[in-house]
Structures are given as structure tokens and as C-alpha cells.
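For the sake of transparency, this paper describes our internal protein records without simplification. The record that follows is passed on verbatim for readers who wish to inspect the format:
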Amino acid sequence: MDRNRNRVASETNLTCSELRALARIAEAGNITPKLLAESLQMTTGAVTALSNRLVALELVTRVAHPSDRRSLLLVLTPAAEKITQKVYSDFRALIARAARDVSPDDQVRLGTLLTAMALVVESDADLIQAGPAR
């Protein structure tokens, strides 16, 4: 997946961080710069610089936050939506090619297993982030 993202970033003249930011905004629909910074594990200053570049490239727009006039939301433009869709469609094609020799029954079992594992990882990540109990 990283190689696919790196390729798309190169093709679109974006950095990997910019492409990750577009993906996060796409997943959220819209996002505040503060939440984007947390999601990307960056400082708010770094996200400001990153979002300034994405706005200049006409990939992101800033809109007023509907319930917090001190804040704003970052929203993808149609051009950015095409880029994120390319990342996802290319990834789906890679997975489909990798799974082409896997029987339909095994695909279902694999999907169930991966979903269960993702839930455990998500749950454990919350525990790890919370730190040890005192």
C-alpha cells in the first residue's frame, strides 16, 4: 500500500504527507486542522503549512465551521477527490489481483478474520494510548 501511495504521490507532484492529509480529509468528509494534525501526528503549525500548500494547489478549501466560529473545516475539492479515489481504486485492484486464486469461501473467511483482527488492533491501540493503569 505504501508503494502504491508513493507512486500516486509522485504522479500528482504531492508529498506523501500531503497525500495522507487528503486521505484523512476524504475519510472524514471534512476536518478541522487541529484534528487533522492529531490524526497525522503533526504539529498544528505543520498542518497549517501543509494545508496552505493544498489550498494553493486547489486541492483543499477552507470553510467556516458550522458551530464554532473560531474554527474552520478543511474540505476536498473535486480534483483532490479524484486523487484519493485513484489511491483507493488502485489499492482495490492490487488486492483483487492478490486474491484472484483464493476461493470465494476462503475470501469470506479471510474477510471475517481481518475484520476481527482490525477490531482487536483498534481496541488495543486505545489501551496502549491510554497508558498503564495506576
User: Anything to note?
Assistant: Helices lie at 2-11, 16-28, 33-40, 44-56, 78-98, 104-130. The chain has six helices and two strands.
